[in-house]
């Protein structure tokens, strides 16, 4: 764990510890009124809204030169015929998926991009211009994230939680009348993308999983540090909060008008110049991204509550590895060389897969490889999609700046 991330973790842990005491007080009905008085009214004020989210997205995407269209795609009130309703709320109002589509050359292959946990489509803002020169790029906010609808999250099982994301993505595809597209997902978005491709392989031409979750277990020797961390007081607190479905976003909401400052500190700590002397972002980019992250994080809790139903503490899950033999879509795994999501899980999955599979590692990058080494990430994506872009894909050389695993 690098120093900047450690500082952020320590800050979050202190806030979480304070919240544990407050949540325990709230758990007793006899003192609810008293507990409310302990939480100053000013802290309950959250300076955000859906309009703020879309406005902050627009400001961030003003840095992108390629023209785009933003729309809220109506996905209805539930997947027809499904036995599992991917939302349960007191009303049947329609739900919407926030979508941005970038101008592209006619005939370009379609690339659908799905963000990870605690993120939104705007995290790809440094990649849109480059990719839009080769693809018809469409990026979405998953249901319950970003500028998409945020239904009450009442899923109580892994099956229901996965259906929430997979079925809503399928309803979005139907509404957009899409088929034969390349599907790219990052981290948790990679997990959703892979699960979607398992259920609807007829629509996906190629699957690109970037630092994907779902291929590792805390019992793997690579992650022994998790066991050691859990034995510390910080680890014990985080483990308890994980099982209680207490999310970092709750802290941001709890801080009210002081939330933006915490997010700014996180952004500065998370995206340092570890891999590049000029840093990851300019001052303006960092300011706009921090503003965007704040508004998407402080809004109503919804999709974020999925975590405990899919992953063990530490974001561990072997579901994709266990289903590798069933995959029907050619797949490329992309990892930053310093990604804490270990690429060896992908190697193990490849041994079981019956479809073409490649694993590409990008030097000087971690989990956010598409931000930390954009050139390397773009090279990896183009190589992964060479059969859609090149007249002689079999003759395309492997990029010198990348590592084949």
TrEMBL record:
Query: Which keywords describe this protein according to UniProt?
Result: Acyltransferase, Cytoplasm, Lipid biosynthesis, Lipid metabolism, Phospholipid biosynthesis, Phospholipid metabolism, Transferase
Main localisation: cytoplasm
TM segment ranges: none
Lineage start: Eukaryota, Viridiplantae, Streptophyta, Embryophyta, Tracheophyta
Coiled-coil parts of chain: none
Catalyses which reaction(s):
a 1-acyl-sn-glycero-3-phosphate + an acyl-CoA = a 1,2-diacyl-sn-glycero-3-phosphate + CoA
Which E.C. number(s) belong to this protein? 2.3.1.51
Residue span(s) of domain AB hydrolase-1? 109-373
List the molecular function annotations (GO) for this entry: 1-acylglycerol-3-phosphate O-acyltransferase activity; lysophosphatidic acid acyltransferase activity; phospholipase A2 activity
Give the record's GO CC terms: cytoplasm
Keyword Nucleotide-binding applies: no
Q: Which InterPro entries match?
A: AB_hydrolase_1 (IPR000073), AB_hydrolase_fold (IPR029058)
Give the protein name, as stated in the record.
Answer: 1-acylglycerol-3-phosphate O-acyltransferase
Q: Pfam families annotated for this entry?
A: Abhydrolase_1
Q: Which family does it belong to?
A: Belongs to the peptidase S33 family. ABHD4/ABHD5 subfamily.
Q: Which domain of life is it from?
A: Eukaryota
Give the species this sequence originates from: Gossypium hirsutum (Upland cotton)
Q: Does the keyword Lipid metabolism apply?
A: yes
Compartment(s) of residence: Cytoplasm
Biological processes, Gene Ontology terms: lipid homeostasis; phosphatidic acid biosynthetic process
- SUPFAM superfamilies (alphabetical): alpha/beta-Hydrolases
